[in-house]
């Protein structure tokens, strides 16, 4: 299937195809966001002043996966880091290289933008995704702590 996968930025008129994948991602993580947040997120992806981006994976012209990423400053480098914030592939397309191709596309974009690293988080229980992540990246050895405000 990987030879049939096309990765590209999503156009502003593709929100209707993107939104079910975004909803699937949120459902997977048992999360909700207000409709306003989804609308603003979509607008940010298409605003040249924003450092947020979205790519879609297409198989036979059907969107089967998405990845969201953004650039941010670091105290450890002069250049930016790239945070791969969200990655989702439809259940039927999993295990066929779509997620890998999305991650590799982010690597290419980040390198072209001068970022020195790509990083992301996943839940400890997300064992299936970790099989792929262990192949394409290194575990940092850090745990995330956060305080929701």
Automatic annotation (TrEMBL):
GO terms for molecular function: N-acetyltransferase activity. Pfam families: Acetyltransf_1. It comes from the Bacteria. Residues 5-149 form the N-acetyltransferase domain. SUPFAM superfamilies: Acyl-CoA N-acyltransferases (Nat) (SSF55729). InterPro entries: Acyl_CoA_acyltransferase, Diverse_Substrate_AcTransf, GNAT_dom. Keywords: Acyltransferase, Transferase. The keyword ATP-binding does not apply. PROSITE patterns: GNAT. This is GNAT superfamily N-acetyltransferase.
């Amino acid at each position: 299937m990987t030879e049939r996968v096309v990765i590209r930025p999503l156009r502003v008129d593709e929100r209707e195809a993107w939104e079910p994948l975004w909803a699937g991602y949120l459902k997977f993580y048992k999360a909700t966001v207000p409709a306003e947040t989804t609308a603003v997120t979509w607008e940010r992806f298409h605003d040249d002043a924003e450092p947020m981006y979205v790519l879609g994976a297409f198989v036979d012209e059907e969107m089967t996966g998405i990845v969201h990423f953004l650039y941010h400053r670091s105290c450890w480098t002069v250049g930016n880091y790239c945070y791969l914030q969200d990655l989702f592939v439809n259940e039927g397309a999993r295990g066929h290289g779509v997620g890998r191709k999305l991650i590799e596309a982010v690597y290419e974009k980040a390198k072209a933008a001068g970022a020195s690293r790509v990083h992301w988080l996943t839940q400890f229980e997300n064992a299936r995704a970790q099989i792929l992540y262990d192949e394409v990246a290194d575990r940092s050895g850090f745990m995330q702590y956060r305080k929701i405000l």
